[in-house]
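Summary of Year 1 activities. Much of the first year was spent building the evaluation harness for sequence design. The harness presents a backbone, in tokenized form, and records the residue chosen at every position. We chose the following record to illustrate the format because it has been used consistently in internal testing since the harness was completed.
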């Protein structure tokens, strides 16, 4: 799952970043992120020009266009509905002048934005991360039957049907995706549960929530030097392994915690701030007294 979140950082999508890793027989066979496809296969990556400047292709990723095509199409659909209602003169009795017409349009637009129109995703240019990874397997001829797909977000219903068709046996996800109708549309092929050991229910694709170390803590717990905690030493100066189990003196907190709860820490911080504030006030008083004395002696014509 850490690799899936790592893959998601490649995405330049304007809405969300999603990453996918597909494994088969405990080997990673493909990765993917939600990104705009390019000709000759794959998705857009940043490129360096002859001068070494790294940039994305013009009109490649959505941010290069300057807008989200899916959101713009949703807006067009809403405007089309409002225009058709006005043409049929259904609510003419509510529209008396230009001002009331604008109010009516705004209210109707607000209502339509709360409908399923806001859940439409098929007008986006990006290839979803799941499809990106599956197509990577297609391009190189890697089988996906009985593979496991790790996804940072619950798959949408469009990706879910392709996951089923590709022969994926297990899907592990982290973040929910309320817009997805995968279970409603494919309850014959998908179940959401953890298959217990020895269970015979292996005919459907299992969608299960991820259980394990979160991506934000992965390096802190497993990296020898890249984490936020202390560095891990696995051997001593002689080359022998450090005995953590037998010698308690070698055991240290990987990521030390504060002894107090955050409320206690805040109170201590306030005390320190007030103390320093008083010191600053005292320092200001001394400076002002010194300046007054200097001015007094200057005007008196005396030397200090």
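For this record, the design step produced the sequence shown next.
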């Amino acid at each position: 799952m850490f690799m899936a979140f790592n893959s998601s950082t490649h995405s330049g999508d304007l809405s969300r970043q999603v990453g996918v890793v597909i494994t088969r027989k405990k080997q990673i066979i493909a990765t993917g992120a939600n990104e705009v496809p390019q000709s000759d296969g794959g998705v857009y990556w940043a490129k360096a020009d002859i001068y070494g400047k790294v940039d994305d292709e013009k009109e490649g990723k959505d941010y290069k266009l300057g807008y989200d095509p899916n959101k713009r199409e949703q807006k067009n659909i809403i405007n089309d509905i409002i225009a058709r209602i006005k043409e049929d003169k259904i609510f003419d009795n509510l529209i008396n002048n230009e001002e009331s017409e604008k109010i009516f349009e705004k209210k109707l637009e607000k209502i339509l934005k709360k409908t399923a129109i806001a859940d439409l995703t098929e007008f986006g240019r990006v290839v979803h991360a799941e499809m990106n990874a599956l197509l990577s397997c297609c391009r190189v001829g890697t089988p996906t039957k009985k593979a496991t797909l790790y996804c940072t977000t619950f798959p949408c219903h469009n990706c879910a049907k392709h996951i089923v068709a590709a022969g994926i046996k297990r899907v592990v996800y982290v973040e929910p995706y309320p817009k997805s109708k995968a279970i409603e549309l494919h309850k014959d092929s998908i179940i959401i549960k953890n298959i217990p050991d020895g269970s015979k229910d292996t005919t459907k694709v299992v969608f299960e929530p991820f259980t394990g170390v979160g991506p934000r803590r992965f390096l802190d717990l497993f990296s020898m030097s890249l984490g936020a905690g202390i560095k891990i030493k696995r051997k001593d100066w002689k080359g022998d392994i450090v005995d953590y189990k037998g010698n308690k003196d070698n055991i240290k907190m990987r990521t030390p915690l504060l002894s107090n709860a955050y409320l206690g820490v805040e109170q201590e911080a306030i005390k320190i701030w007030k103390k320093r504030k008083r010191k600053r006030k005292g320092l200001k008083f001394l400076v002002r007294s010194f300046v007054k004395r200097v001015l007094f002696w200057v005007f008196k014509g005396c030397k200090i």
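The mean pLDDT is 82. Quantitative recovery figures across the full test set are reported in Table 2.
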